[in-house]
Amino acid sequence: MGLLALGTALDWPEAKTKAHHVRAWGIKQLLEIWNKAKVKERDAMLWGDEVEYLVVTYSKDDPKVLLSLRQADILAALAEDKTLAKEITPPASPGGTKPQNKYPSPVFHPEFGRFMLEATPGKPWGIDFKELLHVEPDMKLRRAIAKDHMLPNEYPITLTTFPRIGSPGVFTDPHYPVSGPKLRSQFVPDEIANPHIRFPTLAANIRSRRGRKVQVNVPVFRDENTPWPWKDPTVNYDLHSWPEDDDVRNGAAPDNFIHMDAMAFGMGSCCLQITFQAKNITEGRKMYDQLSPLGPILLALTAATPIYKGFLADTDVRWNQISKAVDDRTAEELGEKPLQNDRWRIPKSRYASNSTYISEDPRLREEYLDPNLVIDPEIKQQLLDGGMDDRLATHFAHLFIRDPIVIFNEDLEVLDLSKTDHFENIQSTNWQHMRFKPPPADNNIGWRVEFRPMEIQITDFENAAFSVFMVLITRVILSFDLNFYIPITKVDENMETAHKRDAVLEEKFWFRRNLFSSRPSRSSGSGANTPRSGGGSRANSRPPSPVGPVEDEYRLMTVNEIINGDDEGEFPGLIPLVESYLDSVNVDVATRCQLARYLDLIRKRANGELWTAARWVREFVKGHGEYKRDSVVSEEVNKDLVGKVIEIGEREANGEGFKGLGDGVEKLLGGF
Ligand code: ADP
Ligand code: MG
Ligand code: MG
Ligand code: MG
Ligand code: MG
Ligand code: MG
Asked: Which GO MF terms are attached to this record (predicted)?
């Protein structure tokens, strides 16, 4: 995360009075960047991933597995290690390809949870196909380096969430009592958050702006012996330390939902993000739009979050829980009370799927946009007056309906147009599933687009597979000029669908039928940028359709149809498209073989041959001798689950493969 400047962070009542000031200066900074960078051309095609870890303490003899709160010490140990500052040569890729370049050593970052770490490559990856093969070894190296700077009983693991975070009793090392002044949570202590003033202030000001604690309610999974209706047995209705303790007495914890009350339950989850640099702003805007409809599909495919606070949930992914964990909307903005003090009703949390498209692509029909998009019309006018086009001005005028949450007094003295701090204040607390990242003020890099919905996977093999897949998809989009547009409200709907248990196999998602359709106003074929072989040519051989009703352009499809193509041969499937793209460019055999491993994993996750992590975790719990079919994930089950994940990690680190691990690991990772 950026924005780690120090200073005096304002409490909400005071921050609120400065919100307009920050927005006004943020817009000036944005226009400054925009005017400088809109003409930037020929930036290199670069990309980079972000992997987030939980740090746990585990030993075979200790009955408990705990979250280690030593983030700061681990980061300090990493920073002090002089051997890491040198360039390093990544280990040879699986398959024996020798990396040709040296890479600077990975970069480690703090995260919201004091039990989390983030790692990115030491420099972004380039366009060369061979570099795709360096991703997995680099991810493994990052994990090994992180582990080397931990205590012997600490491990970096890539489960999205710690299954028993917030359960009664001890779940952190060291242990702290609950209900601190910042979070006011009855389940997690303030010490769970990164102590840097930005993080507790973010949590406290979100709570304060909202007027009550956040309510993260996730439906409990109903098993044979789950009492029904189910009342979350961990909720304490008799606390009287803070005014917010009334929340549960006022109905914050409904029956049949696991109830959580703090930002840590959302922002304490780990994800896999990919940032792409485009060659210019036009290409960046196009990538933003075209990757948007893929968000929910990749969320369902990477599903990895079936447990919260010691209970099996009835959903498979983290997304909505994070959304609720940082939802700062007031009762008026939520539509629970008539508007009096606030400016508008806001349909979504500031953490949500994105609400608008931004490209000036002629294929973008008006009907794809949300007619109810909330924007700040004054901000939009300022952007238009500053020379920005309508569509991009609309996007930023939407992001700028939010208040800045963390404001440092020192930053409000002089407006510095050589910085982007006020713009980033709003931008970086709009956590949408895509982020359009303008160049920094000095313009030394280009326009970037971040793809944010994916859940972190248990192994680096899987994390590399999904990262590489997204890179290949992006190249296919650009070289075949694919068209994934559907109405943005259908993307929202898909995002909800992605939460359902086993959505990857059981649900259908809205998806565009013809990815090769050209501009709506013309009926000519799509010309030169078409694939030479594979499924794509089938779709392309259909006569281009004249403009019809938007509803005819998309239909419901399974993830398997979207990824692997449909049986009727009407929809080519994303993997066959990637294959035909790879056929059309020069990729050496060794590289192609490695890429095939990654595509194979994704193909099998989509067709059900392999399980998602969510499914694997559910099956692990169900198959555990101590599980009583009552939805409870006990300490013992939790310990064995984390133990298994550590064992998988050790296998991977030793390059031994995943065969013979038992406990369903074959269904998760197959013969890889
Ligand atoms: P944030 O947390 O704001 O998303 P990070 O710095 O954690 O940002 O991660 C950004 C990712 O983008 C990293 O993987 C990094 O390698 C990558 N990256 C950095 N510069 C570029 C660039 N110019 N183009 C594409 N990716 C980049
Ligand atoms: Mg992060
Ligand atoms: Mg990051
Ligand atoms: Mg950041
Ligand atoms: Mg990121
Ligand atoms: Mg949403």
From this structure: ATP binding; glutamate-cysteine ligase activity
